[in-house]
Amino acid sequence: MKTRINNRIITSLASNTLDDSINVKKLVQRSQGKQKAVKNIQEANEQLLNTVPVAIFIHENGICKYCNLEAIKILEEDNSNVVVGKYLIDYFIPEQKAIAIDRIKKTIEGELFESMTYTFISGKNNFIEVDIKSNPVIYNGKQCVCSVLTSVSAEKKLEKEILRAKIAEETNKKLVEEIIYRQKIQDELSKQTTKYEAIFNNTSHLIWTIDKSLKITSFNQNYKNYVKTVFNHNLEIGQHFDLDFKLESSKLWARKLMPFFNNKEKNKAEFFEVKNTTLDGKVYYIELYLQPIKNINGKVAEISIIAQNTTERRIFEEKAIEQSAKLKAIFESGDQLMWTITKDLKITSFNQNYASAIFDLYGYFPEIGMSIRSDKSLPNHNFWDEKYKLAFEGNKVEFISERQKADGEKVVRQMILYPIKDKNNNTTEVSGIGFNITENKKNEEKLTQSLREKEILLKEVHHRVKNNMQVISSILNIQSSYVKDVYALNLLNECQNRIKSMAFIHESLYQSENFESINFSEYLSSLTKNLVHTYSINSQKIKLILTLDKLILNLDLSIPCGLIINEIISNSLKYAFPNNRDGIIFVTLTAKQKKVIIEVGDNGIGLSKKIDIKNSETLGLQLIETLVDQINGKVKLSRNKGTVFKINFNI
Question: How many CA atoms lie within 13 A of 218 on its CB side?
């Protein structure tokens, strides 16, 4: 902070000096015949300005007319010829150029501004932060602007070093106590030299000490091995540690070490990091702790240095930063909401989509450390508390959230809460991700509505088909009352039964929720019982035995199969039991995987062996053969102890 204040004082002094110089210049110009004096004064002023440790520019409408040596250093240019005559705005980063041009114009008009921090791109393409203070001046008889620059980067570096020094002070507190203790009771500690040497050499750190002449007074084995490996130098006591193996950072070392021996204020321990290159060109980093060792008079006699190689850590940090950047890109990509919270419902991270969603819902943006609860979210607390409770118990939680934005728009999201666990498998946080499925939900509702309408339409179609078949059946029934010929009457009854068998199927489809297939087992049960009732058969005489596996068949298979069974059972009821004989009619339905077997028969007098179902002249048997071919099935007729039709087909 002192450095920053001093810079401001120097900047002010430089500005005042410049103002005084310009005023002198004005007086000289007014005096005729004193051109030489003016020139001498101008040269003197420029020499004075070159000694000022702040950068000074004089420019007209942004074109540099003059700059001092410090200005050239800050811009990292070779000389003033590169800067003078150049448009200074070109050094600003693009996003600050418009602001700088506007301030120059207003400064020329007499408006005064506080200093402002800008970022320059130097001649070596480095980014440099500077504070700029500008005032209007007359230079060479023209209205110009004088800008005074101070580097902010140096101040930040100093602040960082001060912070590290404070950290080092705390870290080395115990080490300082131990060194002081050793100095006070050196005689007693000499008895334990072997013990301390073992500790000194067994640590993983590099340790050495130097005196005021920068000669090495002690070192451990790790440091000796390090010097041999990195610099191919055999380290010995009494060697000048800086000059003997030519460190790249020698200037840094001198700047760090000498103030200790000059009894700088308080002589506190310092911490810093240096970068060097090995003989084979590899870059490495060393982290160092400097601690003064004082004699009995309180003067610094030596400095102890503890170091550790931090190259691997630096590489890890760089990889971690790179990985963090990738994760952030993933975190911010897409349309999903993402956030994490602690057990006390405090937000620990979120992406921009989550922030925008919270703003749309409640009118404010979330912040890290903020509770997800607020007065505006109160109506939803119970709902979300239940979901978060399950997640913190270690469960993955998925659900649908329907909310209404502040503008009244409805938004539907699929939410997933996932537990984040520590190494002990304890849930410490919960991550949330939300996908906007509003459009999908709308499309789903439209599709559901469309399907509902089609289901109603199909249901109505099957209902009408069934009704029409019942009408046809009723017409045939009425017609039967006018027919006196027995043969014709039987034909009408058979047609009526066939129509009823198809009507049963459409009635089953009408009553079910699935309009593509029916429960064929239930259909067979109803069909066979209805046939027995139609032919007015005495159930005491003829027994109907049904053994039916559960089978679901589509419409294309159900109608042919129903007609086949209708024909077979009708024939059994009409011809198998003459003279009111007792008997059994049975239907067996077996369904295994994709294969269906239907056995329909009776224990009656049996079908005549003269009848060939392949070349039959009767309509019923022809119909059975045709319908079996229609379902790509096979039929086998058995005449032993009655008549049995065995039909098998695949579904």
Answer: 13
